[in-house]
Each structure stands twice: as structure tokens, then as C-alpha cells.
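G., before I forget:
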Amino acid sequence: MIAATPRWVIAATAIFLVAVGLYMLVPLLVVIASSFSTSAFLVFPPPGLSLRWYGEILGSDAYLNAGWTSLKLAMTTVVLSLALGTPAAIALSRFRFPGRSVIGSVFLSPLILPSLIFAIGLLIVFSRYASGPSFAGLVIGHTVITMPYVIRTVSANLADIDPHLDEAARVMGARWWQRYLLVILPQCRTGMAAGAFFAFNISFDDAVVALFMRAPNVETLPMRIYSTLEFSPDPSVAAVSTVMIVMTMVLVVLLNRVFGLSRIT
Amino acid sequence: MHQLSVRSVIKRFGDVTVLEDFDLDVAKGEFIALLGPSGCGKSTLLRIMAGLESLDSGAIDIAGRGVTDLAPENRNIALMFQSYALLPHMSALENVRFPLRMRSKLSREEQREKAHKALELVKLDHLADRYPRQMSGGQQQRVALARSIVAEPDLLLLDEPLSNLDAKLREGMQVELKRLHESLGLTTIFVTHDQSEALGLADRVILMNRGRIEQQGTPEEIYRRPRTVFAADFLGGANIVELDVAKSSRSWRGRFADGTEIPVASAPGLEPGKHKFMLRKEAIAFNPDKSMTAIVGTIETQNYLGSQTRSAIRAGGVELVAVTDSEKTVTKQRETRIGWRPEELVPLQM
Amino acid sequence: MSGDARRMGREPAILLAPGLFFLLLAFFFPAIQLLIQSFLTVGAEAGRLTMEHYAKIVVDDFYAGVALRTFRLALVITVLCLVIGFPLAVVISRAGKLLRTTLIVLLILPLMTSVVIRTFGWLVILGPGGVLSWSLQQLGLIDRSISLMHTETGIVIAMVQVLLPFLVLTTLGSLGQIPVSLEEASRVMGAGFFRSIRHVTLPLSVPGLASGSLLVFALSISSFITPSLVGGVRLQVMAGSIYQQMTGSFDWGFGAALSVVLLIATLALIIPYMVVTSRAGGKA
């Protein structure tokens, strides 16, 4: 660090960081705080502390069903986007072939298109060519928006690894399936894990695609929270949200362990 | 008055002491080399002079002004980075003008003119509008050099100025640096780990070891009269021989490991007992004349280097390396007499 | 030997085929369907080609107003993200390991939390009797309860928090590529702290700032959850009306047309974004 940075610059920086930190965190903190309220209304400050809203959500079929749906949806999405994304990432980072960069951008294009627009297209397709939105439709929608993340993390992972390992395995007599099973896939492990975390997180949290692809009897947690907020928010929403925030924290910690947060930038 | 004085500077990184109570005075117009192996503290010292690194205690004065607590921008110095640190979004001319823009009150036109002159000095005025990425490494270095001298700094600091150049460019740049120093008279300090660079450029060489000055002096003093084993070894890897020294009647004699005895020139502080001496590789000659100290040795291997030949010779129970003019070298002869002028055997402190 | 060589060429094709096929069906096909839908009539004479939906956007004052509000809000949000995000990114790029990690977590944790939940937090803060109102009352700055719900200010406050991480993380990528020695050099050459940021750091982070703000702008015009919940029906934005057309009034043709307009606006931004990033990438 350069010597003699003016003292007031340091002070101003500290104030700025605290202000931005509060700005980023307070929305999450008030949700967590409200979930422990005794009041049936979202008032601040809460009149007293209780766990009654956690009891409430555990006794609510609507929330439990939504939670189960979200979990199933996220898990299926993870499996599908890993299955489709990992081979593509391997091809894009391990081989040189004509059109490689174009195909690369094709794979990343769902990142660029706002998910809103994609969701509308999907809704139109499912209404016209299938019997309307369904759980499968949600899985497909989420796989489209999560697959680019898998491709990114796996490619980043492969970029760090000696490309000659593959050739070495070949020289040592490995057949193609042995190369994939024993050399290439084990190298992709951390990238796949990180991609899986992203995919899970995005699918579990998504409201945009879910709201457009709303099907009868299929309701995810974010959908449920959104409709509650539109009409009659009470602290049970805060309790569900708190559970989801805690899940996100766990995912962030895991992601940092596996992949390193600095590499997300 | 000194142009730079470094007084009792101490710098630690955690538990590691990088500079230990360091003192240095530099006169106006001097050309100083800070020489030493990596980790000796020379780069840290340079960064402390520039104000890029803080110090734990001590003081720095530049041009008679206490700058210890001044930020780099308030010191009126120049530093040429090892990586050159040219601003990629500015042309060569804009890069050279930058210090003037920051420091001088000249008009834009005057600044441009001055920057142009600086580029002329390094013979790059024809590339003034090029961007750094459009230039070769050697050209980039010249821009960096022009940028360092343009604002007439009180102190010019160069960090490993020649290390990023290939051997041929390096030679040309040495000539250039020397010429610029002679014409501009800027007080200049440069850091290097290459002894030939230090000897070839500087008026005074400061040899550093573990955060201290090991020895300082003119290039010739440093080269010919190293005081310690470290100095002798760092400056060109001389032969270091250990002799058992004794005084017999008036003169000193030294005994090799195998018992061979030779006369040793008297020196202040020389005492009986085991003692290390330096013998430069070029000081050893074949077929010694009468004025030389002579012993018998066995040639073990020889490498032909062109105008010179390097021979490994077993003599006095130790291995000596000699570098001699090729035409004066004895070849294909196992046993031979070698010798050196008595003053070439330099006693070293431990 | 030749069989092996042939397999070398086939291998990437085999690896890519499933993913490409999936994207074609599940991503590009819906996008095209959306485009087609926007030119089709609905209702009794469904299926004929028409321009009526696009005409409605232009003619109907209400939707022109919605479009205007959408872009105005996005502009304000982007500028605020830049003003807060650039200094924040500079601080993060120079901070020590601990502070750096803390700040990145501070950005990533909200980023990875569902938008629905973050917006919920803002409802609790901005609403009548909410955290903001209560805090200001405690400080004695106001004497009556206030609410920023159903105001554009409220939308901006909430949206900047949602989108700020994108700008900071993108800019951080650019800043990371600036060698430390450049700033040191400018300090040694006499540029003070702020001049060194203005002449060295800022110009060199332009690619990151440009791509970050384009991204923020594009995300901002297409988001509907935060604006709908904070702004309510009165302060509709384009994405909100699309949601309403598609799921409430079922005027799909018009909804699709609105989406196509949004898509065109987004692409007009994204294409320069890709040019900027690929150029920056090519230089590195």
C-alpha cells in the first residue's frame, strides 16, 4: 500500500463502506427480524419475540407443498443442466474446431436474454404445443437459465488444468471412455460442484420463469411468497424467507469453499 | 549538502527485518548502484525512497527537505519501474507529458514541447504518437526513461533498468544511460542484481546483504578489494582459498591444506591462524615470472570460451579456477606451474 | 490411425449435440414463437397476421407513458449504480484479503437471495410504519409516518440494491487487470490520490464500467418483480404490464409485442456490451 494516504480519505471510505454495507444487508435483516415477531402484522419495531410463525409454516400444507415442489424442481434442474452443460463445456474448452466461438456464445446466450422474455416465449410454446405449463415446463425453463452457469464454471475449472493430461492418458493407452471416466470428469469436479450450487440457487430462488409458467397445482416457494406479498403479507412469509436466506448463506459458504468467491467476478 | 540522505531506516515485514538501521548519503549528481541478491532489501529501499513503502523508523531527506512522511506525489522524484508502467491509454508523448501535467505550471503547449524534447533525448521523437502496445520492449523502455527525466526530478530512481531487455539491447541501453547521466547530471540511484551492470554504470556501488551495506566504493574498489567473502563471491565468483597464516621473521607466510607454503603480503589486521583470501580467476597466470608467487598445479578440465579459456586446476590441495587469455594458456599438459602477483591475494574478513 | 483421427473430429460434436439440441428447442424456438405471436391476432379471428399490437403501443398514451417511465427509471438506476459502484469496486480491488472477502460476501449474499425476498425486505423498510419511517421518527427528522411505497423513489432505492452487485462485480474484473505499478507510477510522477484515480484508474476501468452499466440498464428495463411490488399498479413499468397482459388479461398478442419492443431495446444495448467485453478480452 502506498504510504501516506490522506487520513480523511480513509475516514470517508470507512463511512462509505458502512453505509453501502447497511444498504445491501438491511433488506435481508429486516426480513429475518420480522420473522421472530409476535405481531400478526409487519410492523416495526416488532412488539415482542416469538417463534410462532415458524410453527405456522411447519403446519401449513401450502408452504410445505411449495417447499417440496421447489426442492424437487431445483434438484431436477441441477441434474439436467449438469448432464447437458458439462459435455458442452468440455468440448468448448478441450477441442479446437470451426465455429467454436460462435457455439460458445450460443451456449451463453440465455445469460444475455432477459429471463422475462424467454419465459413468455416458453409460456406460448407450452400453451400451443403442450397442454399448458407444467412441472416439466418449469424444469426445462430453469435448465435453460442455469446451464450457462455450469458451462462457465466447468470451463473456468478446465482452463486451470494442464491440457496435456488428456494426451498423456492417451499415450498411456487409455480408451476414450477411460479418458472421460478417469481423467477428464475427475478434473471437472470442482467446476461441476460450483455449477450445481449456482443452478440449485437460481432454480430455487427464481420467480420470473415460475410466475409465467404458473401451472395448476404447481407452486414453488418464490411463487407463493410473491402472491402473498401481493395480497396479504404476514410474518409467516418472513419465516419462510428467513429459511431461504439461511439456505443461500450455506450455499455461499459452500461455493466459497469449493470454488473461491473471488473467481465469481 | 547531500541530495539524498537515508538515516537509520528500519523496515520490517512481519517478523522479517528487511532493512536494519540503514544509512546512506548521496551527493548531487552521483550515479549510485544498489547491488545485491534478491531479498537483500534493495528494492524495498528504492520503494521507501519513492514513498511507495512506509518505513518503521528513520528518516529520508531529498534535496535538503525531510520527505519521510510525504506521499510519493509530493516528493519530486522519478521512478522507472521494472515493468515500465506505461499508461496503456496514453500515447508515448502523453505518457512523457504526464509528470509535467501533474507537477509543472507550464502551458499545455510548453509541456508538449518539453515532452518532445525528452523523447528526442532518447531518440524516440518519431514515435511520439504511438501507444505503448504498438512499441517494442526497447522502445517502451526509452519512453519510460524519457518520462522519468522530463520533469527534472531531484532524484531519479531506476528499478532493475536493464533486466527486461535482451543482451544486445542491454549493451546499447547501458551506453545510453551513462550518456544521459553525463549530460543531465541527475542524481541517480538504480537497483540491480547484476554485478556487471553495477560496475559498468555507477560512480559508486553499494553492495547490500540482508538489509545492510556489505561494502561500498567505486566499482574498481569493490571489484579489486572486496572486504568479505560475500563481496568477493558476489562480484564475479572469485576463488576463495583458506590458508593457515603464520609470521616467520619479518614476512607473513600462508600454508595450503596440502602443506604448500607461499608468501602472503602483509595487511592491517592480519593475525596468525586460519584465514580466507580471494584470488581472482583472471589473476592466475600460467608460466609465472619471477615477481609472482608460484606453485605447481594439475590441470583437471578446460573450457574454451573464445578469447579466453577457463581451467580448473588442482593446486595446494584445493581447486582453483583460472580464466586466462587463450593464447597464453597451457593446454594438454597435466602438470604445470601457475602464479599470481602477491597483491592479488586479498585477505577477507569472515 | 485414421479411425482415431476421425473420432477426434467427432468427439466435440457428440459432446455438444445434446446441449445444442436442447437450447434450440427450449430457448431459440420459444424466442421465435414470441416474435410470431406478436404479429398474430387474438380473440374471435385468431391467427391472422396483424400490426395492431405494435400500433397500440405507439398510439395508446398509457403504454407510451409506461415505456417512458421504464426507460427513465432504468437510466436513474444505472447512474446511481455507477456512482456508488465505481468507488466501491475501487475500494474492494485495493482492500486487504479480509476486507475484500467481507465486501464481496456483502454483495454476493443479496445477489444470490431470491429477488422476491429482497423486495419483501424493501416493502418492510419503505412501507407505512416501516423501518425507514420509524428510524427517521426516532431521529426526530419527521413527525408523521411516511411511506415510499408506490413512489418512483421507492422503486429506485430497491432496484439499485438489487442491481448494484452486477455493476461492482463487472467493474472489479476490469480493475483487477490494471497493474499496481501504473498507479504507483502516477503517484511518483506527482499525481495525488484523486488525480491518479481520475487519470489512470478511471480510464482503464471504462470497459468494465461500460459493460456493467449496460448490464444494469438491460436488467432494469426487464425486471418486474421489484417494480410491481414496490410501485404497485399505478406506477406500471413495461415488464409489469407484460406480466399483466400474459397472465391477467390474456392479451397475448399485445404482451408479445411489448416483449419484442423490450427485447429490441435490450439487444440494442447488449450488442455493444458484447463488443466492449470481447474487445477488452482480446487485449488482455
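The interface with chain C takes residues 50-52, 71-79, 81, 83, 85, 87-89, 98-99, 102-103, 133, 147, 151 of chain B (CB under 8 Å). The radius of gyration of chain B is 25 Å.

More on Monday.
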